[in-house]
Automatic annotation (TrEMBL):
Family according to the record: Belongs to the germin family.
All residue ranges annotated as the Cupin type-1 domain in the record: 55-198
Keyword Manganese: yes
Record CDD domains: cupin_OxOx (cd02241)
Protein name: Cupin type-1 domain-containing protein
GO MF annotations, alphabetized: manganese ion binding
SUPFAM superfamilies per UniProt: RmlC-like cupins
Primary localisation category: secreted
């Protein structure tokens, strides 16, 4: 019942403003249908051309070694038609952006204020390419290559990665590979036991993970367990055989001790991001967030829609009253009332009322002689 009336309110608010209450997916669809850039600009507010990487509502990947924030067409509709996307890496000490590919884009990764160790495997037959990338330099990872970046510093560092596709996509190697059907993983690894596969998979940390042992030692850090919720979900076709229940999905990062403190965020940003976990980004609003509190966005929408509805009611009542008064005054002796005069254009009644029948004049007309 509450949800139904909520959808009604959302529908009304959507009629009032074509952009309010529109899901990012719908907006992207509208932008893709637009005939030109001029039309696309009309579909977006000014501030929708700016993405806030410090307070993202979605696009985050969080792990024990830091986090990344991605702006791609899925969460930043202004990218439609640009062929570009961007990810910012907030790497903690020894933070490690684990091996992955971008199926649709080349990446140009700029080390802002710390040295990164990076490497990639382009394809079968190509050698392994490795680099230490100092601050101020950028590494290029051609489309589709398996690559990684690790912060070698014992301090937080930033990287800025640009992509030449608005939907670059990302495929984490370990998380995906070990999510293949166990017998195929086992065979690909020279027929190791299912037990070992389940055991290995349970350890695959979320991205951004903690880096190499050498770095952790140098920085005086220990790996005391990282969240592992980014593993490939099991469905019937890739299920572990019965008898191997497999490790249960590890808890979300919250409350997990990590060595990396995420940058301070404003309480408002925390409230907003609490409503959208990276794994449930369907562009839908839910009434309650994970902690059971009412979603502040919904409250704001209800207030806005309430005010709008009250305004409409006020206008309609005013209109009815005026109409009743007009009818009264007409029946009260206006002999010259003609049916249809209600529909006469405003200007016509203006001219006849004022007896002003001369040629139209605007402030821009030259004075008549
Ligand atoms: C790099 O920049 C980030 C963001 O300003 C900052 O938090 C971090 O401490 C910097 N790291 C170094 C090594 O300067």
């Amino acid at each position: 019942m509450l949800t139904k009336s909520l959808y009604l309110l959302l529908a009304v608010s959507a009629m009032v403003s074509p952009t309010l209450g529109q899901s990012p997916a719908q907006k992207v669809a509208d932008l893709r249908l637009a005939a030109s850039m001029v039309d696309r600009v009309k579909l977006l507010q000014d501030n929708e051309f700016v993405f806030d990487f410090l307070h993202p509502i979605s696009g985050e990947s969080d792990g024990g070694g830091g986090h990344t924030v991605s702006a791609s067409v899925g969460n930043f509709p202004a990218l439609v038609g640009t062929g570009m996307a961007m990810t910012i890496g907030f790497l903690g000490p020894c933070g490690y952006n684990t091996p992955h590919t971008h199926p649709r884009a080349t990446e140009f990764n700029f080390a802002v204020n710390g040295t990164l160790q990076t490497g990639f495997l382009a394809e079968n037959g190509a050698r392994f390419v490795f680099n230490e990338v100092p601050p101020g330099s950028a590494a290029i990872f051609p489309k589709g290559v398996i690559h990684f970046e690790m912060n070698t510093e014992c301090e937080d560092v930033l990287f800025v990665a640009a992509f030449n596709d608005e939907d670059p996509g990302v495929d984490q190697i370990a998380q995906r590979f070990f999510g293949l059907p166990p017998k195929f993983v086992a065979a690909a690894l020279g027929d190791i036991g299912i037990e070992q596969i389940a055991g290995l998979e349970s350890k695959i940390p979320n991205n951004v993970a903690l880096g190499t042992e050498e770095c952790l030692k140098r920085c005086g850090l220990t790996n005391s367990g990282q969240p592992t919720s980014q593993r490939q979900p099991r469905v019937a076709a890739n299920a572990l055989p019965s008898g191997y229940s497999g490790p249960s999905a590890a808890a979300a990062p919250s409350g997990t001790p990590t060595h990396y403190a995420t940058p301070a965020t404003s309480p408002a940003a925390v409230a907003v991001s609490a409503t959208a976990s990276p794994t449930s980004l369907s562009g839908q609003l839910s009434l309650n967030d994970e902690s059971g509190k009412t979603n502040p966005v919904i409250i704001a929408l209800i207030v806005i829609v309430g005010v709008l509805l009250a305004g409409y009611a006020f206008i309609i009542v005013g209109w009815c009253l005026r109409r009743r008064n007009e009818k009264k005054s007409r029946s009260g002796g206006n002999k010259y009332f003609k049916p249809g005069a209600d529909f006469a254009p405003q200007a016509a009644s203006f001219h006849s009322d004022k007896g002003y029948g001369g040629p139209h004049s605007t402030p821009y007309d030259p004075p008549t002689q």
